[in-house]
Amino acid sequence: MLTRARDDVGWPALVLLLLLALAPLAVTGVSEQGILVVAMIYAVGAVGLDVLTGYSGQFSFGQFVYFAIGAYVMAAVRIHAHWPWVPAIIAGVVAAALVAAVIGSLFVRLRFFGSAVGTFFLGAVAVDLISGARLSHWTGGSNGLAVLPVTIGANSLSEGDWLYYTVWIALAVSVALCLRYTKVRAGMAARVVKENEVVAAVLGVRVFREKVRAQALAGAVAGLGGCMLALDVGYLSPDTFGISQSIELFAIVAVGGTGSIVGPVLGAVFFFSLVNGFASTSASASQLLFSLVVLAVVVLFNRGLYDLVEQAVRKLFALRRAPAATGAPEGPKTARAGDAPVAPDEQPVPAATAEDRPRQAPAGPPLLVLESIGVDFGGVRALGGVDLSVARGEVHAVIGPNGAGKTTLLNCISGIQPATGRVVLDGDDVTALPVSVRRGRGISRTFQHPSLVADLTARQNVEVGAYATHNGSALLEMAGLPGTRRRDRVARERAVAALELLDFPASRWGVHAGELTMGEQKHIDIARALANEPKLLLLDEPTAGLGEEEIDAVAGAIEGVRRAGVTVVVIAHHVGFVRRIADRCTVLDFGRVLTSGTAGDVLSDDQVVDVFVGAGGKS
Ligand SMILES: Nc1ncnc2c1ncn2[C@@H]1O[C@H](COP(=O)(O)OP(=O)(O)OP(=O)(O)O)[C@@H](O)[C@H]1O
């Protein structure tokens, strides 16, 4: 399923920040401005939390721990080391980022429930540490810590609008950093991680590293929020950084809209306006009303306030984009996911058939050799000693009934699934190599479900697959240094080359993947795997869920791949498709090779066709 994380929020972010910059002209009351300051402080942390949840798919109920680290480190280095306030803020931010990276690395392997429990108790431990005697020299223990007053020139930060605009700058910096992160390689890779970790790993993304990076960024931004909170309240106590604040932060992101960066800012302003609005009612009534409104927003507008505002603005200015299907690619009619697969006897007439192709495998050593590959899942023998040889440059179809072991075989070749036996690529034994190294050696693959990032364009999705490696510093990428820009340019060129090779219409390159038809998504999935210029391309049911014209288009794309000299192993369920694209064919049944040979010979065998499509399915 394609999940949403916005990629088009630069202008809305600018407009919202401008409105907040101008707000003191309209909101002149001291307490109202105070509410806006607190809202912006929470917004700083909330955009970081949004990077964590909305863009990298992680979860945290403990972000206020990093607020606390930022605030206490800033206050402590000013008191004990006499640092000026700006370097002290930087120290607070760096400390929060480092601790977030370390703690985050412990949490990244946890699923939702584990993360929820883990981060919740992290908050409890932090409050205990802050208020306890061990760190009291730095934190003031349960007595708290006074924050030294800040002066800017002759002015105190607490006078006039100085504090307001200091917090505004912190918010603008946080929004800019987080938006920038979502646009660079590291951010795009994290978005694939959120979509599907296995797919990300196969694309060479260091899943663990990208998750920790997102944790560190969210921690840094929360640390900045903590520094602002310290400047605002002027006094730090353990109660300032409790678990309830972390949960409020989470509510702000949910109310504003995850995966939008702007949404959490909107959510924070809404949240604290609501708090202010109910302040005059009795405490219990205000708590109830407040909770009911937040609940209503979350339940009724499950994509959050930002989505609601965006839709209203689009309607107002009639800027709504054209419906997704109207821009479908020129040429073949497209079908959507869920369309019934084409029955064998409805297959389009093949452009060229297996019988037309050479009956002998090309000379020279094979590119891929599998020796006695075996996989057991508990009591289920998925593969029982499969031998296979794939010649360089051929398209080799693996066919067989459901549960025959086809996908497991591709998983063994790509390194996702450990197996007994040997996998030899281009003469090298790669059996013991992990997925990322096999990718580096030239093995790419697609999956039955494309797992594209919905709010990245078709071309951006392909670019994620085009990086030779996903190493490198996200900070340098965000700074846009020449080395990283060169690397991005190469990835872009490779992505364009892959799209052109597959004849994917240029008019659709800029369309968000969530708006592509299923056939187009399959093309983008193939292009993404091809963009790394592999020797061996593994395609897992590229025609699943497609209509006949889309199957025809995928067949055309695979023929393009063959012409480019890439060897292909493809799982397929359609006789006509296999006839058209395959040079050779291996039939699996119950995890064993039933037969293997030229596609023409294999598909003329009645027993094979019976196993493949059921008796009478031969066409
Ligand atoms: N992770 C797993 N845990 C347990 N059993 C599994 C796992 N993956 C696959 N299997 C089992 O292994 C066997 C082979 O599955 P596999 O998905 O490789 O078959 P397939 O030929 O690709 O089927 P299909 O055409 O339906 O995708 C099946 O019996 C399946 O239930």
From TrEMBL:
GO molecular function annotation: ATP binding; ATP hydrolysis activity; branched-chain amino acid transmembrane transporter activity
GO biological process, one term: L-amino acid transport
Entry keywords, A to Z: Amino-acid transport, ATP-binding, Cell membrane, Membrane, Nucleotide-binding, Transmembrane, Transmembrane helix, Transport
Claim: Oxidoreductase is one of the keywords in the record: no
Subcellular location: Cell membrane
GO cellular component term of the entry, any: plasma membrane
InterPro entries, alphabetized: AAA+_ATPase, ABC_transp_permease, ABC_transporter-like_ATP-bd, BCAA_Transport_ATP-bd_LivF, LivM-like, P-loop_NTPase
Residue ranges crossing the lipid bilayer per the database entry: 9-27, 33-52, 64-83, 89-108, 115-135, 162-181, 216-237, 249-275, 287-306
Top-level taxon of origin: Bacteria
Region of interest (Disordered), ranges: 325-362
Keyword Transmembrane helix tagged: yes
Main location: membrane
Membrane topology of the entry: Multi-pass membrane protein
Every ABC transporter domain range: 368-615
Pfam family, one: BPD_transp_2
Assigned protein family: Belongs to the ABC transporter superfamily.
Record's protein name: Amino acid/amide ABC transporter membrane protein 2, HAAT family /amino acid/amide ABC transporter ATP-binding protein 1, HAAT family
